[in-house]
Amino acid sequence: MDLFSEVFFFVPYSWKVLFGTFVALLVSSLGGAKLVKQIRSAETQTSDDVRMVLGATLTLLGLAVGFSFSMAISGYNARQASESAEAAAIGSAYAKADLLPAQTTEKMKLVLAEYVAQRIQFYTARSEETRQAEERQAASLRRDAWQIAVQGSLSQPNSLTALAVATVGDLQKSYETTSSTWRKQIPSAAWGLIVILAVFCNVLVGYSAGARGHRGLLIVFPLVIAISLALINDIDVPGHGLIHVSPVNLERMASELAVPSK
Asked: Do residues 79 and 246 lie in contact, with contact meaning Cβ atoms separated by under 8 Å?
């Protein structure tokens, strides 16, 4: 858990970020509009220096948002790839279970069928407590599969049973890959920079819009920025929000293995 989560005791996403960011930026925009009336006369309210600083700050904000969106998409793609790799590893282990002695083949297939159902539950879980419980059960099933594979290999040691054992070992590797991608990609420091830039931009936009009488910008600009940041955060936080990785490959594998849905 990062510093931001420790301070606010939750990981914000979706409407929480949208609402909170919009309110903060709207207040900044209105504050800038009010500020222009207090410190500048009508003749100097729209000076070139304000427009220059606003343009530079908007450019920095655009770059920060663009890079953050790229990082969030990169993490999302990595989670999709790891889900596909898990499905492939389970399918390979299931197919090569036939290389084990007959008395262990059925045991292995039953464990793998339960394991793929467990991994689907992990991807579809929407609370951290449920997800951790699914991870513990999946770890227990991986240990069972490994013990079955080792027993089969010891009872009939040859290159074919060794291949079956290796594919079961790949289950742990694919799980570790998923775990490494199941985290936020954008650090808290980057979010802090984006928020600071967004606040400054909205103060300057409010300042400029207030001087020109363009009241609509005081609402439109904060709303656009808030939607953008909420979308990026929703993609970046795994397992929460409206945008998440669907276990399409695992579900396909489950249907091939005739695993009953939970």
From this structure: no
Residue type, 74: S
Q: What is the pLDDT of residues 60-102, one digit of tens each?
A: 989 999 999 999 999 999 999 999 999 999 999 999 999 999 8
E strand or H helix at 54? helix 48-96
**Inside any domain, residue 122:** yes
| Residue ranges making up the domain that contains 181 | 3-256
Domain count, the chain: 1
Structure tokens at 79: 């989670």
Q: Is residue 261 part of a domain?
A: no
pLDDT at 235 over 60: yes
User: Mean per-residue pLDDT for 193-205?
Assistant: 86
Environment class of 202 (CB within 10 Å of its CB; exposed 0-12, middle 13-18, buried 19+): buried
According to DSSP, residue 33 is labeled: H
